[in-house]
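User: For documentation purposes, I need each entry recorded in a consistent format: the amino acid sequence on its own, followed directly by the corresponding structure tokens. There are two entries in this batch. Please keep commentary to a minimum and don't merge the entries.

Assistant: Recorded as requested. Entry 1:
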Amino acid sequence: MDNFGPLIKKANTLIEKELNNQMRKIFTETNLTGPQVALLVFLFEANGKMISQKELETTFAISHPTIRGIIKRLVQQDLINTAVPQNDKRQVVLSLTDRGVSLMNENIEQIQLTMEQVNHKIISNISKGSQEELSVNLKQIIQNFS
């Protein structure tokens, strides 16, 4: 039987590299990475709703230090704002800055197209039935660790 952990890790690394390369082509001035763009898209699709850092950690299954690093770099580029809610000083909530909204408005269609292309590359040469089975199995793996 195959050792699945290293195979999944290798696939994830290759997908992340591809996504980073494609995002660099879109964001030549800001040099955003795939995870940074994913966070920006998530905030953009929240339509102005304040999103907590904890919600991002859970949604993206990213550790607290990693998400803090991503947030720090996006704040430095004036793409997101952070705030501490009055009702819970332990939380940090995030929203897009005007610059972040503008950047997303200008590029959201290209980002979505790129994500579709990367997704197509992931499943190319895999039959429809196997794609469905892969989806079920990946969801089960995620559930096993949740």
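Entry 2:
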Amino acid sequence: MAWLNPVPDDHWDYTSSICILRDLFEDRMYPLTLKGLEEGMAELSK
């Protein structure tokens, strides 16, 4: 499972709910960008 986060990744450390979700997803959180989609799909294909 992976999370594509629409919030810019430079804001992730300042939002407690995002920190909680990142822990729940075991750091498989990616920005909602083309690069983030590629990284998320690469993680899911493992």
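Summary note for entry 2:
The chain has a mean pLDDT of 95.
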